[in-house]
Amino acid sequence: MGWLNGFTLRTWSLHPFLILLLCLPWSSSYGDEAACRFELGDDSTKRSYEEAITSYIESDCYLTDPDEGGSLRKEIGNVHVWQDGKLNYEGARSVYRERQDSFRKIRSDLGVAEREKKITQEGAQELHTLIGQLTSRSVITYDRLGLMASGRCEDLTIGNIWKFDLPAISRNSSGGASTECLGITNGLPEFDIYSALENACTDSSCKDEYILARKIANQFKMGLLFSGEIASEGREAVFNSVAEKNKLWDQFFYESRPMLPLDIAFTDWIEGVYDRPLDNGFNVPPSKQWFLLHPGIGIEWVDAAESTTKNEIVIYLEAIGFNIWNEKDRFDFPILRHISGVSLAAVASDRIGVDNIGAGLVFTINNSYQFGVSSYDGDVGVILSVNFMDMFRENYMNSAKLLKKF
Amino acid sequence: MATRHVLCVHGIGSHTDDWINSPDDGDIAFKDLFLDRWNNLQTNHDYRPRHDIKLYSIHYNDAIERLLGNWVEQLELLSNRMSENSDFQKEKDFFDGLIENAKPAGDKRSFLLTHVLDLLVFASLYSVQDSIITNVGNQIGQILKNEVDYNRGDQACVIGHSMGSSVVEKTLKALFSESVSVDGLKFRLQGNERLAAVMLVANVSYALARKRDAFYNSIFRPGGDEMRIMKHLLNVNHKLDPVGNFKPFDPYRHNPDWLPAEDQDHYHNVEISRLSSPMVHSINHYFRDPNVYLPLFEILGGKSITKTVKIKLRSDFEVETPVGKFRSARESLRGLDVTDAKSMKEFYEKVKALSDYAQEFKREGGADHGLA
């Protein structure tokens, strides 16, 4: 039953056509209804029953069930859990109130089947326990939504309550949400829904057990579907947040000033990266890149030098410096915002008429270009460089050639 | 059928982005070996799993190589510009020496670069570590978002090997703690999404922990509760693999109350000792052993595997190990009858098989022992 895959409830709420589709009389042409087994024969074995119920609960057959598929579809079409980024608490709560009522009815049907000996006592007990579990989960979901709506709980913790493996729910939880948000007085042990459904059949024919198991599966799927929808905005936001942080790291290492290992270690130390835990999610890159003993190459003009050596290629070593790589973190002034970094540098050159070693201040422009002012015992020089990785190879070669000609 | 999505994070060394499909120890890709064992259970041992499985490669080697490449490129550019000025010959020679050491020799990077440097970069530069785990978190997130259909009953499981075990531990800790605000509510994956299992093979997560004293206090714990980030945790190590035995993952030694009684069955400490190849550390070497894959398959399949099948698979495996071959030769020796040519022949063949196998271990037991 792959026809429904990919369409979330939110998708439906955005597309009136899909809602209309849900309201249309259901026929096999809209889905793979033929593949859904809604009944088993009198001679059905335990094995065929197990296969049928497993396949049923994992499919979208609950939407085409001749007994209640129509009402479930209608409910899905009517309840919009998220509206303009707001959680519709009342709508969501109504879903779980409805589940409580439905499970009550199934329990009553189960009682009748038990009295009429259509199901064994052991089989009935399995289903009673399962219904108890699912009813309690409906109550817990309903309560938590109420706590959130009232503002008494700030954590959205719903998604796991209805997962197939039915995790345990307890107040003595392993953290992550405040105890108040869990909103229950008695916990629930973890529970295997597959085993409970499979174990329901303990006699020669599983026909009647299948009818009851199918009804339970339908309601479970509704609980699961809506809990997934309630969590969907959060999931989406978490995955987007991680993707965004990943992009920031990419910018930090490859779209800002290139760093050497020593620079990275120095940045980590200065910016306290070594102390950052992972308890609040993924870390973002530090706002500043720090540079320590970072070598660079530039063209320098020293007017005091002899005419043939005024313009020379020099090595400079940024003794210490920083670069604010993300424009958002820079000074908010028209020209200053383009200056991304400053470094103290030592400059080495071989000229006639000036010292070989000087000191200077190097400014980084928009992570790419560098210009600086140097001093050789009072003789002033002007350095021009560009980012090695982005601009060096093409622009710098051209710039340097032009400068030399000049 | 519901699917168990198995996300595999590689270990240290060179790996392609689709590493689970690249041949490894025994000239077989990890995915093929994994599926071979999975299918064998169904075909030959009447195991009927509740779920299908689908494997994915999660990779970070490209991120490390990109960074190393970036450093080499910076040095090359520096060196090239220096060549324009003969006064900088000495400095240029220095940078050229660095570049020479960092670049691949022939088609392959040296062991020092594929392993030691990778480890150093990951373990000592936390910015790099943060970027790697964010990258891995993003890959895992995209699979959870696009592939896992919870309405069908799908679940995900993560396997981390060697340095990948540390990557997995850190990534999941951060991924499930990532907090966002929706309609004024705080939302995290913890409590809303849960992994079926996490398996750490040749586990170095404790050795590479950021803060060892608080390592076992994190959310990285298995359990049946809705707030646990994983239902099962399998810690797998080989007695002869030095990697996982250096500062091993041993939660109960550090904190006897690491898991409450009701959750203790969700932690599986698997220690194996049999050898099936000289590449002790290779992930394939681990997954040949039924003691490793059977507990995982039971979780993935959602049904227990019968004791008879387990015993049969273990004994079949044991026969293929040096210990099994030695035992077989010893049995032949016990039954040796010098007057019976058939018995002599059988004994000779068993001893020869053992000898050949020993030679193979000696020959293939290369420098990396499966680290590559």
The low-confidence parts of chain B are none
What helical percentage do the residues of chain B reach?
Answer: 40-55%
Helix content of chain A: 40-55%
Specify the structural class of chain A: alpha+beta
Strand content of chain B: 5-15%
Q: Major sheet of chain B, described briefly?
A: 6 strands, parallel
Mean pLDDT across every amino acid position of chain A: 85
Proportion in β-strands of chain A: 15-25%
The low-confidence parts of chain A are 1-31, 389-393
Strand order of the largest sheet of chain B: 2-1-3-6-7-8
Which sequence of SSEs, written as H and E, runs from N to C of chain B? Answer: EHEHHHHEHEEEEHHEHHHHH
Account of the 3D structure:
With 406 residues, chain A is an alpha+beta fold. Chain A has helices at 9-14, 16-23, 46-57, 69-78, 89-115, 121-150, 179-182, 193-199, 207-254, 261-270, 388-405, and strands at residues 82-83, 86-87, 155-156, 288-302, 311-324, 339-348, 357-365, 369-376, 379-386. In chain A, the strands form 2 sheets. Chain A has a 6-stranded antiparallel β-barrel. In chain A, strands 1-2 form a two-stranded antiparallel ribbon. Chain A starts with 8 loop residues before the first helix and ends with a helix. By secondary structure, chain B is of the alpha/beta class. Chain B is globular and about 85 Å long. The two termini of chain B are 36 Å apart. At the A-B interface, helix 3, strand 2, strand 3, helix 9 and helix 10 of A face helix 2, helix 5, helix 6, strand 4 and strand 5 of B. Strand 3 of chain A pairs parallel with strand 5 (185-187) of chain B.
